[in-house]
Amino acid sequence: MERKDIIVIGAGVIGLTTAIKLQETGKYNVSILAETFPTDPKSIHYTSHWAGAHHFSHATEEKQKAINKETFNVFWELSSPGSPTESLFLRHIETEYREDVLKADVAKTLETMPEFKYLSDLPFERVKAAYSLRTLTIHPPAYLPYLQSRFIAAGGRTVRGSINHIAQVIEGGTHAFDVSPYAYAGSSLTNNGSKGPLAVIACPGIGARTLGGIMDEKVYPVRGQTLLLKAPWLDYGRVMVEADGTFTYVIPRPGGTVLIGGTGDVNDWYPIPREETSEDILERAFALVPDLADPALRNGKSGLPPVPSHKHGPPPVSEGEGSIPLSTLKANIVEAGCGLRPAREGGVRLEVEWHAASKDKEATRIPVVYNYGHGGFGYIASWGSASYALKLLEDALAQGPQQNSEGQSKSADYSTVDGSIGGN
Q1: For position 179, what pLDDT does the model report?
Q2: Distance of alpha carbon 52 from alpha carbon 379, whole angstroms
Q3: Separation of alpha carbons 5 and 29, rounded Å
Q4: Which residues fall in a compositionally biased region of kind Polar residues (predicted)?
Q5: Distance (Å, rounded) from C-alpha 228 to C-alpha 11?
Q6: Could you tell me which residues are beta bridge partners of residue 212?
Q7: 277-286 burial, b for 16+ CB within 10 Å, e for fewer?
Q8: SS3 211
């Protein structure tokens, strides 16, 4: 059976995962076309690298819950003990403290997680709800290259290019961006550019706001700033959600580092970490998890209180320990980072549109599947969204080529009602 040529725009966690999902069906020759890839130098333009990337879903809408659950199940399998991909993840106990009352529909989602339990011993008066569960953290610097390698091993191709308008891809495939001639078995994407792809999957992230042919004004950035610390002794996570919406998270990662945050600054495009924000994050995280301090310092060698034993789970939280100077943490900072979460009014866009294959008035239309607008929840929704995009694609292809006429959209938007913290 001849494989169908598909192009995926974007190589963030959504684009990579979607490309894998398509390529591994054995039905398609998939090419990823992107300006930035996981192995490139770190940049504000590649948000997936900076993600907190822990799976902590507060989804309430049924479709979103199903998408997040499918993703968690894939991650849980990949992180299973003895798996070749186990080192890309860290399973751990995570506790969330809230200054507001936990909504019943959110509670139902959380209660499905492993080892979920409510905590009755609240650490201080302003906390109204607390619960813990077993979840996992993904390690983006290792996981993203894994996705790219897995895609290529399955026969996929990657092409670097800066796209001005989606019509470039629809009409000529990767030809306009691939500087070297190419052809592979079963492919119609030859180097003469005479034939475009059978379909396009658009996963441009924040680029959906400016990419010609999409220019989605509903897309906006939510700037997140983080600090990465060395703390190999820490094996649990914590989140604090304050009444005014401020959130603080401490997320352990494989390899002995911990990511702390966070911020959620809407329509803030500033591309580098702000020093005053880093200072604020450090103070909040240290108050939430005093164990961020080096145990060698806390075990009395510098007159600091000893580290308690936590054989039965994370220790009680305290509002900081004044005798421990903040400078003990600053010495362990690996890097400060920031990324622009690609949020969207109304939630994620999962939708099919039919676009003319060329400027010829008689040209047929091909399906373009949109999969973007995940905000801070790209990792949390990645595999489930990829499955949904695949179904939209296959349903569209089953209809056959469409004539160049009006009425080209088939909407499958769904509202993302998900308060997850630091997912992406």
Answers
A1: 56
A2: 9
A3: 5
A4: 400-418
A5: 23
A6: 165
A7: bbeebbebbb
A8: coil
Residue 249 assigned to a binding site: yes
3-state secondary structure of 370: strand
Q: How many domains does the chain have?
A: 1
Residue 422 or 66, more confident: 66
> What region does 271 belong to: left with phi over 0, alpha with psi -120 to 50, or beta?
alpha
Residue 396 lies in a domain: yes
How many angstroms separate the CA atoms of 232 and 369, rounded? 42
How far apart (Å, rounded) are the C-alpha atoms in residues 229 and 250?
10
Query: CB under 8 Å to 413, separation ≥6 — which residues?
Result: 346, 347, 348, 349, 350, 351
For residue 385, what is the DSSP state? H
Ligand-binding annotation for 47, yes or no, is yes
CA 375 to chain centre: 8
Determine the pLDDT at residue 398: 93
Considering only residues 217 and 421, tell me which one the structure prediction assigns the higher pLDDT.
Answer: 217
At 294, the amino acid letter reads: D
In a domain, 264, yes or no: no
- CATH number at 382 reads 3.40.50.720
- Tokens for 101? 């009352």
- pLDDT averaged over every residue in the chain: 87
Task: Name the E strands within 319-411.
Answer: 333-344, 349-356, 365-372, 409-410
Strand partners, 67: none
Residue 114 lies in a domain: no
Q: What is the dihedral of CA 338, 344, 345, 348, to 10 degrees?
A: -140
Q: Which helix (H) or strand (E) holds 202?
A: strand 199-202
Domain residue limits at 164:
4-48+143-219+344-410
The pLDDT of residue 125: 82
Query: What number of other Cβ atoms are within 10 A of residue 165's Cβ?
Result: 13
Higher pLDDT, 361 or 164: 164
φ, ψ dihedrals at 300, nearest 5°: 90, -5
**Is 63 a domain residue?**
no
The response to whether 213 counts as a known ligand-binding position is: no
